Amino acid sequence: MESPTVTSEEDLPVCSLWSVCNKLDTYSTPWIERQCRCSGTKSCSTSLDANDGHTLGDKSRQLKLCEPINKLPVCRYFRDITWTLTTNADNTTTQTVNCVCPKNSVAYIFKHQIFKSSKMGIGYKYLFACSPETRLRCERKEPCRLFTVRKRPDVEEVNTNTLCQCAEGYVCPTHHKQANVITAGTVYGVTDHIRTYSGYCSKPVK
Fold this sequence. Notes:
With 206 residues, this protein is mainly beta. It has no helices and twelve strands. A four-stranded antiparallel β-sheet has the order 2-1-4-3, with no helix packed on it. Strands 6-5-8-7 form a four-stranded antiparallel β-sheet, with no helix packed on it. Strands 10-9-12-11 form a four-stranded antiparallel β-sheet, with no helix packed on it.
């Protein structure tokens, strides 16, 4: 399994309670991002098994926790913060889980905050809540899925957002390199290398 950075276990900070220790990206070729190490003799799972008892699903990602997820409560739609993602000024990232989204729901950014550290500069905190999956039917010539692709030194980090459901007999692309996906032609910044793609409903190829 590929990793964008190779970090020894000793270099990682000890996870706080309900922190994400590993993030596994399964969008294309699986790769792992290690964020912290479990305390004591516990180890953080690197398995692709989403049913190992320590995994939360987030679209094409698996969020691994040191603690068993069956100890977490179920979130209420639009109200509870399912997890908090903090990006610090030194480029370190922490993600803390509070509750589990119900089945057939997705996490979305509910609120974001900017904070300033006296020593390190500015950081960002993103609060995510749960929403039911959209059941809206796509209109003609309306994109069904949006792909946001960020090129990192060793991997592509892809976020997907389902915008609507295709009509019966049609399918929505699941990868930004499939047919019926066009680039939005927008690149943000010189160093970020972020490009967006729109996917459209089509008849399945037989």
